Amino acid sequence: MVVATTQSQDIQELISSITDALHKEHLTTVARQINLLKPAQLLKIFERLSHQRRAIVYRLLDKDLALRVFEGLSPVLQSDLVHALQEHDTTDLFNQLAPDDRVWLLDELPATVASRLLRGLDDDEREETSTLLGYPADSIGRRMSPQFVTLRPWHTAAEGLDRVQRRLDTVENVYYLPVIDSGRRVVGAVSLRQLLGADDAQLVETLMEPTMTAEVSEDEEVVARRTARRGQFAVSIVDHEERLVGIFTLDDAVRILEFEESEDVSRQGGVEPLRRPYLSTPVSRLVRSRFTWLLVLAIGATLTVQVMAVFEETLEAVSVLALFVPLLIGIGGNTGNQAATTVTRALALDDIQPRDILRVFTRELRTGFMLGVALGALGFLIAWAFFALNVGVVIGLTLLAICTVAACVGGVMPTIASAIRVDPAVFSNPFISTFVDATGLIIYFVIARAILQI
């Protein structure tokens, strides 16, 4: 924690120094400062600079360092930089990216800019990039690398190393080497470490190990989670005839999962994902990401107001009931949110499938009931001690019912969302809280009317 704080302070001091020099138009000073930094430090700085200053600082970087920094930026920040740079600078950067990294960037660019950049590629590079763009959005085909080295089972270790050395400058990854048969079907994989440690005459078929494959049309998040869970350095991507068409590496899996986790956390909190570092996000974008959700939730909250209006006479007859409304709403919302978060996470990790909805409902029914018994007993004792026995009964039974209903709703809604191919996070905490608030109040007043005879 101390080390992280110190590094953050150092980055902030660098940013202050660079910003001050830019304000004074001391560009030579800025260039001298930034070209002594490591790419990781520059990435942190770029994430905190404004749109205009980021472009100025980037132009002051040495060419090799500039490329390494550009490759490390998120696709959204790359897109911002492409808009800010001159056309010849942009084309040069685009040409030096790997095909799968180009697709990440092209997905963020307007169609006219994307077309212009594609036209600037040579024929081979354009064909590789266009092939990836031809796969459906969110499929693993758009995230795989078409540049790789393959081996055959009958190759010797020496022949394998020779193939790697001849392709060093043209492929993105040489650490994972798929082994294919005469029909380009994957029969295994060999790591570069295995080749280096083998005798020159040893056959690849004696070195290769089974490897995971994924079909090119599979969802990118599903494949990324499977790759990360199994701890594999890379995965072979095959077409519907099981022929090798690309490889998908662990670093790309981590990149996808980081984006998906950020998206889910944002939506569970009732905001649209920013898809870029917070400090580099314009305030207008922050407003847009929150306003729509707040408007929707405000409209949904009118349900609670309507319920209160319907049972206004009940509140007037027994004013003490109003004291418990915040408590009941809070417990109901939190119970629903807990269930939704747990089930959403289980869906993301493939622990459960939409077809398990009945099992999810049963488990959450039991969980909610047990929570309701515990909290209801406590609520009954407190309300009885401070008010009256019948009030205690109302509170106890209401907590029992609310916890049970909230847990069931919180568990089932993400499962239904997944079944209809909607992001479960969309139907998570904010919407569930609004629904449970209104439902909980109806339960509360119905129980109160029945027991208090009002």
Automatic annotation (TrEMBL):
Output one GO MF annotation.
metal ion binding
Q: Which residues form the CBS domain?
A: 144-206
A Pfam cross-reference name = MgtE_N
Question: A GO CC term?
Answer: plasma membrane
| InterPro entries given in the database record | CBS_dom, CBS_dom_sf, Mg_transptr_MgtE_intracell_dom, MgtE_N_sf, MgtE_transporter, SLC41_membr_dom, SLC41_membr_dom_sf
TM segments? 291-311, 317-335, 368-387, 393-419, 431-452
The answer to whether UniProt assigns keyword Transport to this entry is yes
Query: Where does it mainly reside?
Result: membrane
Where in the cell does this protein reside? Answer: Cell membrane; Membrane
Keywords of this protein's UniProt record, alphabetized? CBS domain, Cell membrane, Magnesium, Membrane, Metal-binding, Transmembrane, Transmembrane helix, Transport
What SUPFAM superfamilies would the database entry show?
Answer: CBS-domain pair, MgtE membrane domain-like, MgtE N-terminal domain-like
Tell me the function of this protein: Acts as a magnesium transporter.
Entry similarity comment: Belongs to the SLC41A transporter family.
What do we know about how this protein assembles, alone or with others?
Answer: Homodimer.
This protein is called Magnesium transporter MgtE
Per the UniProt entry, what species is this protein from, by scientific name?
Enteractinococcus helveticum
